[in-house]
Amino acid sequence: MTEPLLKVTGLTVEFLGRHGTVRAVDDVSFTIGRGEIIGLVGESASGKSTLGLALMRMVPSPGRISSGSISLEGQDLAALSEAEMRTVRGSRISLIVQDALATMNPVTTIGEQIEEVIRDHGDRSSRAERMTRAATMLREVRLPNVDQNLRRFPHELSGGMQQRVAIAEGLVLGPQVIIADEPTTALDVTVQAQILSLLREICDTRGTSIVFVTHDLATVAEICDRVMVMYAGRIVESGTVREVFRQPAHPYTKALLSGLLPLAGEPLAELDTLSGQPPRPEDWPTGCRFHPRCPLGEALDHPEICMTDDPHVDESQPHWAACHFAELQQPALTEEVAG
Amino acid sequence: MTEEAPLYSVHNVTKDFARGRRRSVRPALSEVSLVIRRGEGFGIVGESGSGKTTLGRLLVGFDTPTEGEIVFEGRAVVGMKRAQRRSFRQGVQMVFQNPFASLNPFRSIRDTLSDGYAHRRMSSGERDTAMKDLLGLVGLHESMLDRYPHEFSGGQRQRIVLARALSVNPSVLVADEPVSALDVSIQAQVLNLLNTLKKTLGLTVIMVTHDLRVVNFFCDRIAVMYMGRLVEVGDRDTIMNESSHPYTRMLISAAPNGDPEERSERPWVSSELAASEPPAEGCIFAPRCWLRQQLGNPEECVTTQPRARPLLDGPAPDEAHLAACHFAEDVPEQARLAQVS
Ligand SMILES: Nc1ncnc2c1ncn2[C@@H]1O[C@H](COP(=O)(O)OP(=O)(O)OP(=O)(O)O)[C@@H](O)[C@H]1O
Ligand code: SF4
Ligand code: SF4
Ligand SMILES: [Mg+2]
């Protein structure tokens, strides 16, 4: 097997709070191949955005990466100095966020925003050349009327156009990896469809890889190759999107999937629900962190091991789940037992 | 078949927020007519700025129409006498999207709920029992009465907001994006609760949302809005599965279907139909309309705004299925040809 493009091992992010340190991201490992889109799904406080920021080495203080490595083509980003990291950010790994407008300078035109990104990374070409490059990039993300819109200010564009500009900014230095944090959540569904198809196309034509952070499983089904489900700071299930959707192996994934309401056909009479709410880093439960809400644990009459032992996983498997009773969740197996 | 008189009839309602005598080119709401029946789940869907919240606010009487009329239980909302107005205000409650912003952080749940009983003749013991029953109804424990909003999660706060709205015994609940701010696992709890309330209390629930999955789960009938206009209204099944408006078709096909084995086909995505400059005249949807393109750009589309009209020659003729398209009858067939959902 060839080396993966990005290999994350044992990544842990800690925040120093009033009640001591909390681990928002706890011992996370995964890999991404070239041109791959990997979904990172989870609910609020699960740590998905923190993990995305950690990959960029942009965890806000008082947080920090306390252990682990982020190996991009063999180079450990976690070990770089801030000065070294600055040359990597944008050019080899970049970030696109939900609220594109908030990240833009309101008094700088669209063209200049992108021109500045190019200049700040030590490009010595003339300003006119950089502007041409910016325009080419904006055409590639299919911003309409580029010549006109180059001279406009961010607030003069629609939400969908702003998001295209943000994507152009994230792409212009040709990074190998893009972290996209809820990049379509604030957009109307028809615009979302356009942006998702653009991201997919970028991966296919440029070989760029995307870590797609979202709470929405429907968009994961739409564009991701693989998916990682996060709960309480940990990845609890990982696999190809097809397998995870067809045969979720973790009870939490199963619950999330049943919360994905159907768009067509007969509506459900009643939805399956989980009791309680997602925990926060201050009070991650012991053992399996999902145990206070787990329907499988309940069906099995609360096995001791769920409360005491962290489920062990073999992350080298193509599809794995962090559950002591993962096999029981596989529909094929349960059907055999039942039938 | 005898039709019961509708709960609401909305007659040709326009809402223009422009001040002074000048009218906007595109008001927040234009010429909307529809009926809402007693006890139904009625969905108002559309993209950002389509006017759904504006319509919801008019239905509860928070705003008044610039033109047209809203009739509730046979009486025009504007111009109700005082006593009628008071019972309307109580009978129709609205809950908003953000459960964090809509509760006063300095008031306990007891304080918040007791407002609803203020002008009712009740002993404090009776009121206490009523409040506890109400909490039970929305799935919260009575021990929570003396707690404050910050001690609750988003889903719990949304239940409290619902309990507050229910404390005055309304017959209608208008819910604006009631689950959009909630986590998926919590969303299901609140939707089940709304469903139960609808069934057990016979509440009419008007759900304002951009989320097609939520309306498909919850609503009996659905109205689709686009740029301040009603483009289509009909039964859930008709709208979601057999729509007669090109915009409704586009909207539904835009939503990811959630099945990685069968990713949605959207031929329109990469075409110029994606851009959305509103036209000066003709059909509001014309610049983005795949059907117009497919029919070879008929004249009517760019000269005359179609009115929402009943569609009676479909497989299931229904007075209450309206669509605002000159070529609505052709939509199902043409959509299959164009692979739009
Ligand atoms: N109080 C107001 N004053 C002026 N304009 C308003 C007001 N309320 C709404 N509008 C305008 O009316 C139009 C419709 O707005 P509305 O809030 O009804 O849309 P919506 O469909 O609820 O959108 P969203 O999905 O973003 O909530 C928009 O152009 C909006 O800017
Ligand atoms: S280990 Fe136990 S508590 Fe955790 S997911 Fe599996 S069954 Fe549920
Ligand atoms: S009237 Fe014409 S432009 Fe409008 S929706 Fe119908 S076909 Fe499209
Ligand atoms: Mg709204």
From TrEMBL, chain A:
One of its GO terms (cellular component) is plasma membrane. One of its GO terms (molecular function) is ATP binding. Keywords: ATP-binding, Cell membrane, Membrane, Nucleotide-binding, Transport. It is found in: Cell membrane. Residues 6-257 form the ABC transporter domain. It comes from the Bacteria. PANTHER family: DIPEPTIDE TRANSPORT ATP-BINDING PROTEIN DPPD, OLIGOPEPTIDE TRANSPORT ATP-BINDING PROTEIN APPD. This is ABC transporter ATP-binding protein. It comes from Cryobacterium tagatosivorans.
